[in-house]
Amino acid sequence: MPRATFNGKVIAESDDYEVVEGNIYFPPSSIKREYFSESQLQTTCPWKGIASYYSLNVGGEEASDAAWFYPQPSQAAANIKDYVAFYPVVTVEG
Q1: From CA 61, how far away is CA 71, in angstroms rounded?
Q2: Could you tell me the pTM of the whole model?
Q3: What is the pLDDT of residues 3-52, one digit of tens each?
Q4: Residue 15 gets which letter from DSSP?
Q5: How far is 17 from 46, CA to CA, in rounded Å?
Q6: CATH classification of 3-93, choosing from 2.170.150.40, 1.10.540.10, 3.40.50.10490, 3.20.20.300?
Q7: Which positions ≥6 away from 21 have C-beta within 8 Å?
């Protein structure tokens, strides 16, 4: 089962996931929301649309803009709507 960890804690874990461009996207129901806070950062992917970001705070260790998701993805990326992926500061296994 894929899991994401940061600062020794599991922050997301699920058998239900999507892989896009080599990144595991976790469903929104699988993330431990107490570790996430929405960021102001947004970026644009030419084919997926506008990405929004989360920052993490786990046990006093922070990682700004460490996770991203697509709240309104393009039609081509509809399968990852609200699913969350992580930058390498987060360990993703599975």
Answers
A1: 26
A2: 0.96
A3: 999 999 999 999 999 999 999 999 999 999 999 999 999 999 999 999 99
A4: S
A5: 22
A6: 2.170.150.40
A7: none
